[in-house]
Amino acid sequence: MHLHEINHLEVISELISILFPFFRNNNKLCCLSLNACELGEAHPLYINAITTALATALSTFNTLKLFDLGANSFTQDRAAEIINELRGHTNLNKINLSLNRLGKKGFLALVGVLKVCKVSDLDLGYCDIDDECATILVNALQKDTSLKKLCLDGQYAEFQDEQDIHITATGWGTLFSLLSRNLLEELSLYNTSFSLGNEEALVLAQHLSNNSTLKSLNLGENNQMGRTGWQAIFASLQTTALQSLDIRFNNRNVPMRDLVRVLESPNCRLVCLYLYRNGLNDNEVIDIAHALADNKCLKELGLEEGSAITKRGWDSLGVVLCDVSSIENTFTSNHTLEDGVYGPSGSLLGDLLDINKNNNASDAARIKIMRYHFAEESNGNENENEMSAGMRILSVMDWSILPHVMAWMGRKDDCEGHSTMYQLLRCIPELIEDQTQAKPALGKRKLRC
């Protein structure tokens, strides 16, 4: 059940009360979402009724698997009253409490839920976690093996004007200790700029280096972190199994040369890397392109037009995806990268990425070779086309090798194969056997194109 963004707060408590029979008698209700209803912002005349109605509703059934209370701005007393009723939902595995001021009471209530529910996905973004709350949470998770995805976005980025609640390096160290237990698979620390600096980054790097399970890390918009912090994190990633790294919106703080070393490492496991809005220049993009020449794992690279990247930088990525200087270089180009690069309109990047995305590496290499080496070359006369350089090579190839090349061209029923085979038969018509004539003698052949 989704009740998103219901802003007519006067009717919320009445609505929830009306739904009591539905909650009580529906033994299949597994999802309840009240995201962005701003219930905690209700007038004092209504907030008590809303809180009581919601808590009572949760106590009438026990089948929830997902509960979303995000973006409601509940204070810790109200949040705790509601969270306490989740303990009866023992199948609960996903909880979103983001953008609520949980405080100590809210976290203590959450501990009670975590003890009886196997929660795998927990969103605590913008919840004003302080050092004490961090300790409460981590202590509760000491024997927990269920939590795989944890969101800690925006700590001390909201509500800071109301009271001085914030997390220090000590609290972050406590939270990061969860990584050393090798259970978490996804961790989001987006927009923690007010509290995550170099000191905290060094602690994070230490725990990352000892982790073998984390697959996704979001460090977007952390502008307080300087070069030292980023270098430590990138160094730790060379020994992890991380597959997705999001560092968008960090302006010029990220030392790209150190990130390039991660991509160059034979231990690199990154599949997705998001670099949007980092002010990259041509030289940095060229370094990334060189690193991708031998990288066989990165599939998505987040780069966008409109930054400081010019044609020179974009062309370097085009070359690494399809180096047309020779057939061999095209064959050994990068056939893995397939998404995320939004280059200038009119460039071939989009086409090359689509080729990689829709084909395995072997088939992508085949399509690129036939498209960029064997296609006819226009000579300016719309009625005449010149033989491509690749076709010239085939036209003088030894007869014993040519059948293998033709089998390679025609192994898939596609436009590239049909077009190349047609061009080849135009150049070497002897390949079409004529039963009324003797077979052509092996040896040199006269070009027909």
Keywords:
single chain, 449 residues, alpha/beta, 11-stranded parallel sheet, two-stranded antiparallel ribbon, 40% helix, elongated
Structure at a glance:
The chain has 449 residues and is an alpha/beta fold. Helix content is 40%, strand content 9%.
Number of extended strands: 13
Identify the quaternary structure here: single chain
- Beta-strand content: 5-15%
**Distance between termini?**
68 Å
Poorly predicted runs of 5 or more residues: 157-162
Q: What composes the largest sheet?
A: 11 strands, parallel
Mean pLDDT over all positions: 87
Query: What is the topology, as strand order, of the major beta sheet?
Result: 1-2-3-4-5-6-7-8-9-10-11
3D structure, described in words:
The structure is a single chain. With 449 residues, the chain is an alpha/beta fold. It has 18 helices and 13 strands. It has a domain of 45 residues. The strands form 2 sheets. It has an 11-stranded parallel sheet. Strands 12-13 form a two-stranded antiparallel ribbon.
